Amino acid sequence: KTIRLSEYTVPAHLVDTVDLRFELFDDGARIHSTLSVRRNPESADAAAPVTLDGDSLKLERVALNGEDLAAENYEETGEQLVIASVPDRFELTVVTWIEPQNNTRLEGLYKSSGMFCTQCEAEGFRCITYFPDRPDVMARYRTRIEADKASCPVLLSNGNAVERGDLENGRHFVTWEDPFPKPSYLFGLVAGDLVEQRDTFTTGSGRDIDLRIYVEPRNAEKCDHALASLKRAMRWDEENYGREYDLDIFMIVAVDDFNMGAMENKGLNIFNSSCVLASQDTATDLAFERIESIVAHEYFHNWSGNRVTCRDWFQLSLKEGFTVFRDSTFSADMGSPTVKRIEDATLLRTAQFAEDAGPMAHPVRPAAYMEISNFYTLTIYEKGAEVVRMIHTLLGPELFRKGSDLYFERHDGQAVTTDDFVKAMEDASGRDLSQFRLWYEQAGTPELMVSDSHDPEQGIYRLTIEQRIPDTPGQTDKKPQHIPFALGLLGPDGEALPLMQDGSADAEGAPVEQVLELTEARHTFEFHGLPSKPVPSLLRHFSAPVRVIYPWSRDQLVFLMSHDPDGFNRWDAGQRLAVDVIQSLVGAAEGAEIEPRLVEAYRALLGDSTLDQALVAKMLQLPSEAYLIELADSPDVAAIHHAREQVLQHLATSLREELIACYHRNSEAGKYELTPESIARRSLRNTALSWLLVINDETGRDLAVQQFRDADNMTDRMGALRALVNSDYAAERSAALEEFYKHFQDDPQVVEQWFSVQASSDRAGQLPQINALLEHSAFDWKNPNKIRSVVGVFAGQNLAAFHNPDGSGYAFLADQVCRLDDSNPQIAARLVTPLTRWKKFAPAYGSLMRESLERIRDKSGLSADLYEVVHKSLGS
Ligand code: ARG
Ligand code: ZN
């Protein structure tokens, strides 16, 4: 069934308060819910029945104003409870029985390592009780939890704890009250045997907030980083958005079995353990950064999502796009802004562009969906964040802040739309964003065809930019969008040239960087006072989520790599050069020459200690296979893999001395620190190590073995392990893998890394080995992280093995997807993604991919989640 934005109507009934009583037992849970309901004066249908959503519920009782309803007075369909005749205002009581211990979908109330926890976004609350489960129904919640005191000493829900006490039979209760009206998707509950780590935060206005992280006792030592990140995020939101926290207590709970990263339940954020727990010994630098950004993301939702929420799920990007923009700005402020921008742009260009070009392409504000869980996508999150970033660029920081202040003030306590957000930005700034709104409505990645010419006589440089937006499923003939295009021009010695757009401007007052605003299908810009042809620095800091097509020469790219004052574009020039070199080798004869300028550029980078080392570390990463595949038409995966490998080997061979020097220069002993400098050093030395092992260098091997043994932190230990796993030193590889597992087998987050490093390796992650990992005693089909770390990583990162020309990788994925669909459809629908891109690949691959998809389509009892993805990608 397809749900359409155009069919939105306001709810017929509103709920003012929700009174919940949870009786938690080993064999199930009984939920008593009492709602105060009233007719919505704004509803056109004044005689509408009360309609409540429900999923897999056993209904024990329905009562209206305290009187039990007889069966003929209500109707229970598979998905709804409908009561036809009701007064304008009434109290509705519903009692349901559910079995959290058997809930493998991990939606609603379920059990994870013995503890009760919830995930209600988007439509999980209906798996707990019958309720109008839509975000525009906002109510105040009071929640009483009753459970066995020994097994569940900790009982948590949203808001403030207002009452607690003992009950008979060794049971106890706690009652929570949340003063802020909220939609049901923000409801949260946790009950279990947990320890707490405490801290406090004093808000700008002087209120003391109690901060708590709840974890299983064995993880008590892994909360410091999350707590510190939380306090930084709280301060940052006050300073940058004027947003203070609003309850007296803020809680985070770590849960091992979780479908997503984390969830922003009001006052009670629930996290996937891997997104919150960290220690020097068990988490890599990347994990530390990820945790900081996710903790901030969920915290920021308290305003962008909770205080102001979404009217309906088509507006999901209202909270997600804005919140990702906020967390990404926060991370940029905490570390290197250039590196953060590179990471965001890489994700977008590799994965979101691929989504935009695939069968599930959808606008930032989709017009229709079948299963909303399938729309928690890179488009909604990351492209949505880019759209907000472009508003920030167009308005400038001051007006943007005025706009966000107005948005929060105007809509506090409301459920609103992306259009309301843009309207607030317009009203506060006086800018017309009507054309800009197309970013929310049109799917697909705009392509900018850039060409230029120079008139030496007149000193005029002309830049022509044409935009084109490709067709996507259900959308053709798109209108030009409003695109901020940041530009700089470089002179022959690398100097930044003044941008003089008309004859009157004089060089003195002219800027050296400018944001051109593209609104038409084609623009030509003229720049004056330029006796020689400049090198353009296009789309600086990735000022819009678009593809730029310009015929760069390799000379220009090498020039930009060392001269562009925009760090992002320096990196980008390096990537484009490497892409060009690798692409020219795809299908070329064996022994073809590899561009010497690439080697020299990398040599210069390795020796440059004046540049920001974090940027150097990024610049040394070759474009990923996934990105090269995304860029290609009908990619031949094996050929791309081979070409990239050749370039890597050639670079490593030519730069062996420099790599060894770089390794040592960045290894000088010192205390482990989590500063940008020391993170950059670890990154550089581990990159050097991995390159040396690509060419089976014995010095490299010895360094790796030694580093693996001596490492005092997970980044270095994992760096050495990864290098060995991806080398031909089979004996060292197995010894290290075995040693690592023995040491860390009791730590699930580390075991997940151990699975991933193998599943992503073309040496250690061929299908027989992957199957062996699935049989491993630490593998668990009920745990999404384990599934992702083996099956997800294999299909998403081990591309040569996944795209084995014999189709075995595809068949493998289809088998796992079918198997998972019965227990956890959300995970199954996500895991199938790589197969859905079958049309993109050379026919030899594509037809095998399609066959695997068809096999999934024909599975009996296909879930709604998987149905939507599979049918849309088969075009049926
Ligand atoms: N709102 C959460 C976040 O982005 C994600 C929850 C997604 N849940 C889901 N079932 N798709 O922070
Ligand atoms: Zn979010």
Portion of residues within helices: 40-55%
- Biggest pleated-sheet summary: 8 strands, mixed
Which class best fits the helix and strand makeup? Answer: alpha+beta
Task: State the distance separating the first and last CA atoms.
Answer: 14 Å
Radius of gyration: 28 Å
Q: Low-confidence runs (pLDDT<50, min 5 residues)? A: none
Give the helix tally. Answer: 27
What general form does the structure show?
globular
Named once each, the bound ligands are: arginine, zinc ion
Give the strand tally.
31
- Average of the residue pLDDT scores: 97
Strand proportion, as a percent range, falls in 15-25%
| Strands ordered across the widest β-sheet | 6-5-9-3-2-12-15-14
Tag the structure with descriptive keywords.
876 residues, alpha+beta, 8-stranded mixed β-sheet, 27 helices, 31 strands, globular, binds arginine, binds zinc ion, Peptidase_M1_pepN_C, protease, aminopeptidase, hydrolase, metalloprotease
Task: Describe the protein.
The chain is 41% helix and 21% strand. With 876 residues, the chain is of the alpha+beta class. The chain is globular, with a radius of gyration of 28 Å. Zinc ion (ZN) binds next to helix 3.
